[in-house]
Specification:
427 residues, mainly alpha
Length: 427
Amino acid sequence: MINKKYQQVKETFLRNKILFTNFSYLSILKFLEYVFPLITIPYLTRTLGVARFGLIAFATSFIGYFLLFVDFGFNLSATQEISVNRKNPQKIAEIFWTVTSLKAILTVVSFIILTAIVFSFTKFSRDYTLYLFTFGTVLASLLFPVWFFQGIQMMKYITVVQVVSRSIFVLLMFFLIKNPQDYLKVPLLTAMGGIVGGCVSLGIVFGKFKLPWVKPTLALMTGEFKNSYHIFIANASISLYTISSTFILGLFANDTAVGYYAGGEKIIRAAQNILSPIAQTVYPHVSELVSESKERAIAFLAKLTRWTGLFTLLLSTGLFIFASFISDILLGPDFRPSVAVIRILSLLPFMIGLSNVFGIQVMLNFNMKKEFTKIIVIYSLIHLVLIFILVGFAEKGVSLAVLITETMITLTMFIVLKRKKINLLPF
């Protein structure tokens, strides 16, 4: 009996140690993802100007659709699969080669679609080089198997690789971008940083973990598609009120309006990145807990909800109060209209922090994928209606549409979980 209790304590200690280690590395990685924009945005906004900055943001949002298509939800589904099968090297190899092969096929399809669109419409063809360079981030996504390292819960490798590769190419921006005419170097350097990091990470996968080759059969590929389908639909729907907001604004307004919105939105997204280490570290951990004890998983998630809510509420409050100061420091005097964007979107860290726990951590791990997908799809369609109504108010209207959508998603998820007798808040 004593030995059994000792073993349980030991397993809990080891699991918490792994969790803390991965969280620490992810925190470093996300901290730099938070710092890099704070370093580059002030330089780029002042060097490129509002219009060029807006054009790059529009191209990034456009290519975001292809990133979404190539990822196809694998970053969550494959992470979960590898986490559950972490002690089965053959199964891990099977998952790795199947997912990588699928992503390679989707990358080729994406490039064909991209070239067809770019050279068919004047809106895109006049800046075709910009879109081709920005597509490099899709190739980087293919080469960088973040989902693999998250699944085996060994984040130190990709942390080191990402930090070194991205730091080098961020520094190059300051040396190579000197005026608005250098705007094409922004997506090129960004893509190169990701591609180099991806190649190194693949070297680690093959060199350290020595995964045997497993031929991806049609049955395996079909199984992975089915497993990721609900996540992909949810992510595709989410894109309707994230990247689509910038994209639709760019279609109906000028590059300057996009620049104002993108400036404020990037600051909000940078603030949200603070939460990413928690979400990414916790997801595979919760998957394990659910498979062992749902009661323990719910207790853990209740604590996570309370701390996440408190931290993000303080963060959102700070963004609202200091919006003008933040805009002047990070964006510069030419971006004064972005202050309104920051204030409108300042509640997003709080709402998204809670919806991540309710949706990603709880619904996906508790086999509520259909409910999760349904919520996202419904409100994404509502968002499309909202954005077309409010786009006439340019960056302010788009910001308001995003805030309304995110708020309704969070509230609906909370209500659904409460009806399922999963109450993560003390009321």
